[in-house]
Amino acid sequence: MHAMQYEFTLPADYDMGVVRSRVVRVAHLLDDWDGLGIKTYLMRERGVHGSPVNQYGPFYLWNTVEGMNRFLWGGAFQGPVDDFGRPAVRQWTGLAYEEGEAGASAPGFAVRRRLPVPRGAEDLAAFMADAVAETGRLAAADGAVPAAAAVDTRAWELVHFSLWKHDRPKAGGDLFRVLHLSAPGRDRLPRGRQW
Question: What is residue 70's three-state secondary structure?
C-alpha cells in the first residue's frame, strides 16, 4: 500500500462551491481506476469545524505503484494541475490498514494527522508497531469507516488517516469533509501490519 496526498490552499474568500462543483463533475473518473484502493476528495473550509484555511486536499491509498504512476503521468493528474497549479505531492509507504467498525457506511469526514518520527526513537520497529496499534484502535472506534498509517522515510514523517461517518471522530488531526469516495480496490488493500 502507498499513501499519497496533495493540497491546494485557496484564498480566504475563495468560493468553495467551485471545488464542490468540480468534484461532482470529475470524481466518477477514478471510480474504476486500476491500482487504486481509495481516493477521498477532501475539503476544508475556513471557519468550519475549526479549519483556519480553505483547502482542497485529495488523499489516496494505492494498491500498486503502477496505478499511482498512471494517475500522475498518464493524464488524470493534469486536470487538478490545470485548475489549481502543480502542487507538491506527498507520498508515504504503507504501515497498516484496517476496515473500521462502520466499514459499510459512507464516510462524511476524514482525519489526517501528520507527526514526525522523533530523532530519539532509536527502536524504529517498536515505534512503527505502535503506529500499527493506533491504526487498529482508530478502526475499532465508533463511527470509523477505515484507518491507515504510513511513513515517509525521507522526511521521517508518520501519517495516520481515517474516514468517519460523522463529524465527531475519535481521532485528533486535521478534519476534512469527504465530498466523494472512489474505492475501486478497497477490498484489495492489504489488512493489518504491512511488513
Answer: helix
pTM of the model: 0.95
CA atoms within 13 A on the CB side of 12: 2
109: which residues sit within 8 A by CB, 6+ positions away?
Answer: 163, 164, 165, 166, 167, 169, 175, 176, 177, 178
Distance CA 159, CA 94 (A): 10
State the Cα–Cα distance between residues 53 and 175, nearest whole angstrom.
11
Q: Where do the domains of the chain lie?
A: 2-193
Beta bridge partners of 114: 159
In this prediction, residue 17 carries a pLDDT of 97
Domain 2-193 fold is Alpha-Beta Plaits (3.30.70)
| Confidence band, pLDDT 50/70/90 cuts, at residue 103 | very high
